Amino acid sequence: QVSNIFFFNVIFFCCRLCSAFVSVNTVPSDSQQGILGTAVAVEDGQAIPTAAPKKRLRSLDTLRGLSLVLMVFVNYGGGKYWFFHHSPWNGITLADVVFPWFVWIMGVSLAMTIRSLLRKSVTRGAIFLQIVKRSIILFGLGIMTNTLSGNVDLNALRIPGVLQRLAFSYLVAATVHLLFAKPHEGQLVWAPVRDVLAYWPEWLLAIPILALHLALTFYLPVPNCPQGYLGPGGLHLNSSFENCTGGAAGFIDRSIFGNNHIYQTPDMRHVYGTHLPYDPEGTLGCLTSIFLVFLGLQAGKILLTFSEWKARVVRWCIWGLLCGVIAGVLTNFSKEEGWIPINKNLWSVSFVLSTASTAFFLLAVLYYLVDVCGWWSGAPLIYPGMNSLAVYVGHEILHGVFPWAWQCPESHWCYLFMNLWGTALWVVFAWLMFCRKLFISA
C-alpha cells in the first residue's frame, strides 16, 4: 500500500511537471476535448444563436474509459488469453478493437470541440494553431514512448506509433472539419438527413482519402510481389512471397523510414516466420484511420444536429448497421475468403468499418443507459475516460514496474490477477485525479 501511494505521488509530480507542455485544468473544458479528451459537453437543440444549456455527455467519457481500460489490460498481457492478444494477421479479437475505438471517439469529440470554440468567437486561425500544437505534442509523446525500452539509438528509433497515428489523423481530420464547420446550424433543408447534407464537402474529401488507400493497396507496384498482395509474407502460401510482408503497406514504410525505423517484432512473425520488419501503425493505414475519424465526426454531428435522444440513437444504429453490412460484404462474411479481409495490421477498410460499427452501437447503448435514463453514472470507467492521456502515457512508462507487475508462474490465474490489478491501479489513479480536479489533455 505504501509503494502504491509512493508511485501515485511520483506520477502526480510528473503530471505537474508536464503542465508546461500540456494543458492542466481543474475544471474539464470544452476546448480541451480534442484528442484523447477530457469531459465532453453537448448542447441541446439546434439552429439557435443564443447560448443553450449544456449537459456533460458522460456516455462518451465512459466509452473512452472502456477503450482505455481494455487497452491497458491488453498491453499488460491480458492474462495471456489469446482473445486478449492481437490477431497475427487476418481476423479480429477484442484486443484489436480498442485503438480504433479511440480514433473514432476522437472524431466525436472533435465535432463538439470545434463547434464550441466557434460559438465562443475563437478565430479559425487560432483553432488551427491549437490543432497543430496538439498534434505536435502527441507526436512527440509518441516518439518518447517508443524509447521506453531503453533503446535510444537514433539509427534504430521507431518513428510510427499509436500516438503518432492519433496525431496525424487528428491533424488532417480536424483541419478539414475546421474549414467547413459552422457555429450554428443553417436552414433545415432535408431535415431527416441534414447531419449529412450540411457537411457534404467533408465527405467529398473523406471518400477520396479512402479511395487513395484502396488504390495504393491494390495497384502500387511492389518489387517481386504480386499486385494487391495482402498477406504477411514469410511462410504464407508456402513461402511463395516471403519478402512481401504487408504488401504495399509494408513496402511504403520500408521505403520512407527504412527497415531500422519501423516496428521490428510484429505479431505475425511467430505464426508466419517473417523476418522483415513491419509496422502496424504505418503510413498507409493513416489514410483509413483518418476516414475512421470522419465516421466519428459523423456521430458527433448527429449529436449537434438532433436534440431528441431517439433521433440520435436511431441514426447511430443506422450508421452502425450500414458500416457493419459493408464490412461484411467486403469480407464475404468470412475470415480469409473476402475481397478485403478484416486486418488490424493493415488497417484494412473492412477493419475500420467493422470497428466503427461496434463503436456506433456501443455509444448508442451507453448514451441510453448513462445520459438518457441515468441508470448508470459511468463510474468507474468515466474517470480514466476523462484523463486518458495521463493514464495512457503513465501505463506505458510504468509497464513492468512493481506494483503493476511482478514475476508470475506460468498460470493464467496469476497473469489474469496481475494484469487486472495493474489495470485497476490506473483506474484508481484516474479517480484520484478526478477527486483533485486535475485534468490533463494535449
UniProtKB/TrEMBL annotation:
Keyword NADP set for record: no
Keyword Transferase: yes
Transmembrane segments: 6-27, 63-83, 98-118, 125-143, 163-181, 202-222, 282-304, 316-334, 346-369, 381-406, 412-434
GO molecular function annotations of the record: transferase activity
Keywords, sorted A to Z: Membrane, Transferase, Transmembrane, Transmembrane helix
PANTHER family from the UniProt entry: LD22376P
The protein's name in its UniProt record: Putative heparan-alpha-glucosaminide n-acetyltransferase
Organism field: Rhipicephalus microplus (Cattle tick)
